[in-house]
Amino acid sequence: MCNKLAKRILAATLGLALTTSMAWAQSTSFITIGSGSTSGLYYPTAVGIANILNNADVGLRANARSTGASVFNANAIGEGSMQMGMMQNNIAYYAYNGTGVEAFENNQIENLRGLVGLYPEAIHILARADAGIESVADLAGKRVYVGDVGSGTEQDAKNIMGAFDLTFDDLQATVRGSSGNAVGLLRDDQIAAMFYTVGLGSSAIVEAAQTAPITVVSISEEELGQLQEEYAFYTPFTIPGGTYPGVDEDVQTVTLKAMLAASSELSEDDVYTFMNTIFNEKLEAFYNDVQNPNLDKYFTVKSALEGMSIPLHAGAVKFFEEQGVEIPSELMPPESDGAQPASE
């Protein structure tokens, strides 16, 4: 009798646990966030956001994946293998409109939606001090790292070189792979220069400056004018002297905006919960716990739509309306998303 009662209690307990587990799984949405190389800033940013979300217990779970960065993440969102991704604002524009980058020709990412602009990404052109590279034109005939395959850095290298009538064919060798590997090649004099589009203080660039005699190539006002004639989304930016070891003078370059994008297939409720958790209820943790010094320096909710290049997700619209942020009409989601117009 006692054994039968014990078995019934055990069965009931196991059944309750299973039911509870199934209910939890059914009520929890899972989000994969595409980032970039582990030596860049996309990866720690995505990891930090995922950790904050997971610890908040709001019915959302997230994990961050190291990827080839912007272009890869946009394609992954289009294919449905990721729900969110870090990317440059110009790459988001290209992806959504099916233009500008070979990867998006006849491959428009129609389900790509904007969430938030995070921080400026300066285009760093690093060169060995003994390579005789003082301008973009001097890259001709050199071994140059141009970014990982499918990354925003690769596209920036193409754009900048193209503004000076250079192509990858004009280089002695076009080197690809991760930025971390490129740092080792620069240190060991296996490449003469490298492009890197990233926020200030990147660990990869700090390492390069600590382990090799490097310079950071400036883009002069005249060169900048030529570049902006073709690519208006590049804006002037100054890398302050002292940002990197051995680079004591200010460096003039151009910048883009690092942003977070999502799939339109995520529900409005889930995206609103995500936005409100990270950028409102847990904003202090976002500033303090995410390992990216640019967030505390450059990010505010009020300026989070500056540089946004694609329509927003309906859940992001709801969040920004609540925060009193004016939403330009061109950033409203397509009617097919079921979003309501911004309140007057």
UniProtKB/TrEMBL annotation:
SUPFAM superfamilies: Periplasmic binding protein-like II
Gene3D superfamilies: Periplasmic binding protein-like II (3.40.190.10)
Matching CDD domains: PBP2_TtGluBP
Signal peptide: 1-25
Keyword Signal set for record: yes
Coiled coil: none
InterPro entries cross-referenced by the UniProt entry: TRAP_TAXI
Alphabetical UniProt keywords: Signal
Protein origin, superkingdom: Bacteria
PANTHER family for the chain: SLL1037 PROTEIN
Protein known as: TAXI family TRAP transporter solute-binding subunit
Organism: Modicisalibacter zincidurans
